[in-house]
Design goal:
Layout lengths: L20 E5 L3 H12 L4 E6 L8 H4 L4 E5 L12 E4 L4 H13 L3 E4 L12 E5 L2 E5 L6 H16 L2 H15 L5 H13 L2 H7 L2 H11 L8 H4 L5
């Protein structure tokens, strides 16, 4: 994870990369991780550049359909049509040049060795299923970010069943066409209930009682379907 600038307040957001065209300039250790992270999010295309031939462990990534690898230095025209850029070459001057061009052209850019020159930083991200938590220490301690990422991944995994149940329940509730305020109150009540603990413990009967107490009668016959997440 690159050093973060402590002098800026960054706005946290999650980007949908589908349809976006990306550039990774430099495939060293950091650039390789950026490439892998991009592939996890399925962008439209990735142009990957490096002066050296790719390492053996990188080749499966470079063979992905959306990736085009070219063994050559960065050229200014590589930014044409790109919306997201990682300046990760081994040359700080080249990285700053890329970041400057991106700023002039209003292209999102992460500059690995001079984050302040870019327009965004990449936080530590803990993932479990469809859930993701982003963590930044504001540059104070990337080492702590890495440690807490592991702890947060464990925390997320313990809540996976609750998220899957709520994901199944939401369209059922919305299909009843009740008032928005009623639905909001129901979802908040479920979130504050002991249902999550019952799911973690695999206590099907306790889950059943909790859902029967909170859900409208019209949905009671759907409870067994919701509780499939325990299996």
């Amino acid at each position: 994870m690159p050093h973060e600038s402590p002098e800026k307040n960054f706005y946290p957001l999650f980007l949908d990369l589908s349809g976006l065209h990306c550039l990774v300039a430099g495939l060293g250790g950091v650039g390789s991780r950026k490439l892998q992270g991009l592939l996890h999010c399925a962008p439209a295309s990735i142009l990957a550049l490096d002066m050296e031939a790719p390492a053996a462990e990188l080749r499966p990534l470079l063979e992905q359909p959306c990736v085009r690898f070219e063994q050559r230095p960065f050229r200014d025209e590589d930014l044409d049509g790109r919306q997201l850029v990682f300046a990760a070459t081994g040359n700080a001057e080249v990285n700053r040049h890329i970041a400057l061009l991106c700023r002039e052209r209003h292209i999102l850019c992460n500059c690995i060795d001079a984050p302040a020159e870019g327009s965004f930083i990449v936080p530590a991200v803990a993932r479990s299923g469809c859930m993701a938590l982003a963590l930044s220490t504001g540059g104070a301690s990337p080492a702590l970010s890495r440690r807490w990422k592991g702890e947060l991944t464990t925390w997320l995994e313990a809540r996976q069943k609750m998220v899957r149940l709520m994901g199944r329940l939401r369209p059922m509730v919305l299909a009843l066409h009740d008032e928005t305020g009623h639905n909001t109150a129901l979802f908040r009540a479920l979130a504050q209930s002991p249902l999550q603990d019952h799911l973690q413990q695999g206590d099907r009967q306790a889950c059943l009682r909790c859902l029967q107490a909170l859900l409208p009668p019209k949905l009671h016959d759907r409870i067994p379907e919701l509780l499939d997440v325990i299996a």
